[in-house]
């Protein structure tokens, strides 16, 4: 493809993706004076962390309720919140009965997500539900149906990392053909620690370290790898074909049940892609790494940083300036091979997720991380864990294909501006 045709067939010539802070889907500012009163259900590390993020949203959200069944977490809530303005609860159902609360954040163990989200929607609340959306395939399918029956309520799923403008930019690069024909995804999220929280009373072991036990948790695939799986499903508008996983408790022989070392291989037959998703608790060198490899180039992503590595012929085309393209001069990174994609001023992904949550509530639109994209990822995680523990290959079934069918809501995210994975 010559330079002029490459410019014609992509937005490269304008620099809209590689060189500028172009406004991307989900990043638009919403003019609205409404302040939504919000309750947080689950005040562990994630719930208390989101409480702090919400402090950056003056005039949009007001936290008026916090809920957790554990005394130690209610004590934390008393230290962090003004209890003259924020009411504390032990039972989420009592919080949901509060008619003055508009929305809730659910940051509880995975096995409770379905019940609490269902209760919240039926109580007329908008919901931001932490990932993974549901624990089982049946729960994901059922929650999607329940959400369709409550079209006035927003249900956003907490895959916050891909809410960064960087990830919107990469999604658009994929759809505009910058990477060419993508065939391989290599994703890792590695750490070197035992993943345990301190337990003040042995009776609280399973309540605090619920991630270690299969009754409550999806383990590493749910807690870490689901973020990268979710981005692939969203960016390519794709569904898995087959899922195969393996793993074991290979380092920490401490009574845990979920594995500390896993690898999941996912085949996307329609797109002609293979996704490799792995995590270990025994080495931190790679940390979070995410490489999407195509015939024209590769994107290497961190949470808040990204580099585009063009293939040699693509690099040559990028460096040719024909005088009419209007292309901004390329700025290569230090190794002279890649183009920096990230904006140094990026905020935490949760901030951008709250922006979309506010927009979805205000305009009654589908959030970009929604019950359909989040449901697809939750099903993928459930099938991955079944494969890991049983040692077999899991097949994607037609009943797993979740999609919006409510004409009253605009479709968003992977259901908007569909494009194929072609170079």
Automatic annotation (TrEMBL):
PANTHER family: BCDNA.GH03377 (PTHR43818), NADH-DEPENDENT DEHYDROGENASE-RELATED (PTHR43818:SF12). Residues 168-299 form the GFO/IDH/MocA-like oxidoreductase domain. Residues 399-423 are annotated as: Disordered. Residues 412-423 have a biased composition (Basic residues). This is Gfo/Idh/MocA family oxidoreductase. It comes from the Bacteria. GO terms for molecular function: nucleotide binding. Residues 37-158 form the Gfo/Idh/MocA-like oxidoreductase N-terminal domain.
